[in-house]
């Protein structure tokens, strides 16, 4: 069957309309127009990954940042969580795992830029959305232009600014971006006030952003002063139900930036006026492509690498010119003296999350292990780094044949192109649903016809046409996915089930090497050096089949100590049947152990202190050896069939 596209219409680029951009101390410039970001006047397509420094042990920061860079991340985004730093009014703490300045300096050392997400409210599955308890007791309205509230905000922003003195882009530092607030949908005036306060206190960056989503027509934002960012998740842990949800729209080419599913547990619909966010004034930027999912108590997930890769590939096709993942690196929640800091129903929020674990099943786990999503996403990042300047200028063109959400039989495809070249994107994957094979596919871009091929299995890929390979070489088409250059040679990935065919135009060719998917997943390019890692990252199958070795687990007849009530509450969400086990490591214990105990909630205590927990979700509980550095006990509550469990 022949598959065509709608008419390509070159997008007009608006420039000079936003109060954004800046220059550093040696003349380097960062800017933004309506289609893409720029560096020294040239288009760029950055890749951003979220890692919360305060949720990762300080001694692991550098290795984690290096791992992020090796996976293709350019910008590390991080929440600065107010309740972590000022649990008691007036007593600020930026030491130890809270040392923002040291984290940013390490990012710079590794070669990463930084996006600070300064709140004041952040959500982030944190108690009070990140507000300290003491500010909730004040007699003023939060997240508004109430003068007394703004006074507190100014103090908070001033503290952040002083920590980052000399580290902003204008000073030659790595801090290039700042997100104001989070998920504030209906108060553009307040967002603009926050920007002014941030600048007045010294938080000066080229790019200020806000989250642009809400349930209707996009958040109300100060249109000339920020870039709205978007996202999408492969499921909805916050959904109130306990049944499998309808097929996720993020696996279809829709061209829609605003995902109304994000934050629907907390965001209210905006009604009563004709507001419409003016999308065409801004590049399509994302900050929350779900790098995984957190388990809530009532909804529990198993995330595969392709769950994340397929979503990111589609957004890239649809014109995303900043890929931002939340989370890219998992973390560990702090516990303060009198209370835990996770979001919970006990603090007025609609969900219960684990007290310690913020692993997110992210590309990099809480303890620095890379998952399959890390490898798969890097396939996109390799190409973006090689070809991003050209790709950033290309626009999304819809397929001629629209595919309805829920359709599991039709070919899902889209195109990103300029006047005569571009890339055809195909997604043949739907999380938790089988997709029918599509046979005898013939793609006609209007410029080039591809050879006929079949699309089978769980695959998502893109193919080039009229691609400029450099030195006057034009690749008319390839039924393989471009990755990056290694010297003069272009590396491509063989798409599973499709024979790689290359056709050049004009008689000129260049060296091409094709690698299979398994080898492509091990490919890295850092600072111009191409290499293949010895081993692939952990897949979902690896985790499920992980051997149970390196430890002894012995059931106990009685508790070994009294569990504090703030921890016991998690074990008693729906019952009180609790079991205790002693945990000892063998002399030849590997770096990680895998505990596969069917239960409801699990907690790890070392020398009487709670150091890790999770909600059971049909996967082994993977714990690092270094965490178990004392007398260890596992405490579990009885398995309950009372929620959504994959």
What would the principal axes of the Cα set say about the shape? globular
Instruction: List the quaternary state of the chains.
Output: single chain
Mean pLDDT comes to 96
Low-confidence stretches: none
CATH class of the largest domain: Alpha Beta
Set out the fold topology.
Elements: E1 2-3, E2 22-23, E3 29-32, E4 37-39, E5 42-44, E6 47-50, H1 61-70, E7 75-79, H2 82-85, H3 100-110, E8 113-117, H4 133-136, H5 147-163, E9 175-179, H6 188-201, E10 207-211, E11 227-232, E12 285-290, E13 299-300, H7 305-317, E14 323-326, E15 331-332, E16 357-358, H8 372-391, E17 395-397, E18 412-417, E19 422-428, E20 438-443, E21 453-455, E22 459-470, E23 473-478, E24 481-486, E25 489-493, E26 502-505, E27 512-515, H9 517-520, E28 523-526, E29 529-532, H10 540-544, E30 551-556, H11 565-571, E31 578-585, E32 592-595, E33 601-606, E34 609-615, E35 621-624, E36 632-637, E37 644-645
Parallel strand pairs: 1-20, 6-7, 6-14, 7-8, 8-9, 9-10, 10-11, 11-12, 12-14, 13-37, 25-27
Antiparallel strand pairs: 2-3, 3-4, 4-5, 15-16, 17-18, 18-19, 19-22, 20-21, 22-23, 23-26, 24-25, 28-29, 30-31, 31-36, 32-35, 33-34, 33-36
Helix pairs in contact: 1-3, 5-6, 7-8
